[in-house]
Specification:
By secondary structure, this protein is α/β, with parallel strands linked by helices. It is built from nine helices and five strands; from the N terminus they run βαβαβαβαααβααα. The protein has a five-stranded parallel beta sheet with strand order 3-2-1-4-5, with helices on both faces. The N and C termini lie far apart (39 Å).
Length: 229
């Protein structure tokens, strides 16, 4: 049996490149996407597009109403999103777009599927640009979750635990754009905007839009998703 990996696939740029990194590392890819009540639900459709484009062996879509218990401007369509902030502000403090315990919930579900599949790894698109703002994107958090996974699963106890892999952790957004090009990832399928329309049209003002635009600009590339939307 070929070695397998589960990737948490959101439909955004980082998770798409993480999926491609898993395939480049020789893994058969199993993609997991969560519809958790996010206001930018178009990312779920884009995750389906990305899974197909990168050649995932299987793509699972789970419904999970985090909006019922977790307060965030990403799950409340009436809440104001951070917009037009200077790059020096982005990542300073925990923003309202933080969804309480989201990555812990997501990784737990990915871990359950990975253990069922006999997968060796879980790939997640956490990276250095985000972890200063989101506590569940930090290297220390992923190390702690790795320890939990090793302790709390049969696979871990038996010495064949699932490895948590964040291949983009130390990359800037510009480096992620460049890596996507090297791996031939079609970023036109991806959407990063926190309030993207169903068509994929982006606002251009939210933190996610600004970080993405900065990454493409610094990489000297144009964003292909703007043409698709």
């Amino acid at each position: 049996m070929s070695k397998r990996a589960v990737v948490l696939l959101s439909g955004g740029m980082d998770s798409a490149v993480s999926a491609a990194e898993a395939i480049a590392a020789g893994f058969e890819l199993y993609a997991l996407t969560l519809r958790y009540g996010q206001r930018h639900s178009v990312e779920v459709q884009r995750a389906c597009d990305v899974a197909r484009d990168v050649g995932a062996a299987e793509h699972r879509l789970l419904e999970l109403d985090l909006a019922a218990i977790a307060v965030s401007s990403l799950t409340d369509s009436e809440a104001a999103l951070p917009e037009g902030r200077a790059m020096t502000e982005v990542g300073s403090g925990i923003p309202s777009t933080y969804v309480p315990a989201r990555n812990t919930v997501f990784l737990s579900l990915a871990l359950a599927w990975a253990e069922t599949l006999g997968a060796e790894a879980i790939f997640i698109g956490a990276n250095v640009t985000d972890y200063s703002g989101y506590p569940d994107c930090r290297p220390e958090y992923l190390e702690a979750f790795q320890a939990l996974a090793d302790l709390a699963t049969q696979a871990g106890v038996e010495g064949r635990g699932v490895k948590i892999v964040a291949p983009l952790m130390k990359l800037s957004k510009a480096q992620i754009v460049e890596r996507a090009e090297e791996l031939k990832v079609d970023l036109s399928w991806t959407v990063s905007c926190y309030q993207a329309a169903d068509s994929g049209q982006v606002c251009g003002r939210c933190d996610a839009c600004q970080l993405r635009a900065k990454g493409f600009a610094e990489a000297g590339r144009s964003d292909p998703a703007l043409q698709r939307s």
